[in-house]
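Example complex used in Figure S2.
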Amino acid sequence: MSLTALSPKRAPRTGQDAPSALYDIPGPRARARHLVYGIVAALALLALVAWVIHLLVDTGQFAYVKWRPFGYVGVQELLLRGLGNTLKAFALAAVLALALGAVLATGRLSEHRPVRWVSTLLVEFFRAMPVLVMIFFVFVALEVQPLPALVTGLTLYNGSVLAEVFRSGVVSVDRGQREAAYALGMRKTQVMTYVLVPQAVRAMLPTIISQLVVALKDTSLGFLITYEEFLHAGRLIAINMDYTMPFIPVVIVISAVYIGLCMLLSWFANWVARRERGNLKNEAVPVGRAEAAPTMPGTRM
Amino acid sequence: MDVLTQNFSLYGEGFWGTVKLTVYSSLLALGVGVVMAGFRVAPVRALRVVGTAWVTVLRNTPLTLLFFAMLLGLPRFGVALPFELFAVLALGCYTSAFICEAVRSGINTVPVGQGEAARSLGMTFGQTLGAVVLPQAFRSVIAPIGSTLIALTKNSAIAGSFSVVELLSTYKTLSENGYSVIWSFVWIAVGYLILTLTISALFHAMERRWGVAR
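Predicted assembly (515 residues):
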């Protein structure tokens, strides 16, 4: 028996994932068995896909008339305008949420107790509220246009979550950094702006970008308050009698674009996380994960 | 205060709708999520691919789009189910992707020696995962799962816009009956706070009872 069979940790990587501690490196018989499982699973999956495609074909979803509208300039413009509105809401919400997050995080890290209390209250409240309730409240009770209502709701929620991300980043910077900065005679603000914040933001960048993915996904809530965003444009096409109500093609196109956009941003967050982990500048602070994780109320991050 | 006392049954109905949505979707999400987490660490490659695809697609889909596609799309194939069931399916599947990731990172926190010891006793993959690793992983995933279920409760508000009776949608009836919009929203907010804080307290208690001492 060779050494590699005994210690799977040192087993050569065979182009797959790193060896797992949960199962042995498969021998010839296990490999044959896994192959059978794999084929069965793949066949089941293929059968499912085939059934879905059969359903789609059966109900005529791939018929030319259902897809023809996407060739019309007017429809393309409608979709692009919708996508533009989605991206506009996202950009506004992202910038404002980052600003609000910075303000609230500063408040929570303040040395003045009232400021800390107020910021904590705001952060905890906006994180505990469904973002849709805030959007509807602004839209219905304050009677503003859909775009400001959507952006306000998204800003309040994501800003509060980002505040916690910023704060936990600053708190997790190695204590020696702060002490060294004070020892050099820096003032409180200088310690913050020159020493703690740059390291915290750099380390938290993956988490911040992941939270922006959440904001991007949540722009689709604008659909529910009649903001003319991407989904809204899709619905207009889907319910149009002249286009034979191509609902399924519309869903396919819209999902592809949304999932593509979000995956691109998620992938960027992961790329940043990998890069920052290998960066010597992050020695004093653990790099955040590329995952948007709002914690439970009352939990220290 | 009048808004609440005069419409107590309406609020109660909405609150109960949100509770039902939350409980059923949570059960679905937990079931599917744990199975998918098992798939993602399985020795069979095809299963790993299925798990990864499930998580990647659902995590990057806006929930509104999922509701839109499910509630308005599935009936085109003759799948006629009550709106509540569609909503539970959409919420449950969406949340299962996040549960899966929480469980998977919980599995990663279990020391490698545990899995190795289980294997050296001759346990199969299923036994190693089910009897040794998952019970220990459970202790470290209580808090993340709590946060995910709170997010689920908050997301259930979307169902109200798709003809499901739940807490947020009560505002429509109230404003039609001429009640103050601000006060009706205050009580809706209180309802959600009660729910999220209850779940939070529940999971904090579980964390104290079973969580890993940190």
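Chain B touches chain A through 64 residues (CB under 8 Å). Chain B has a mean pLDDT of 89.
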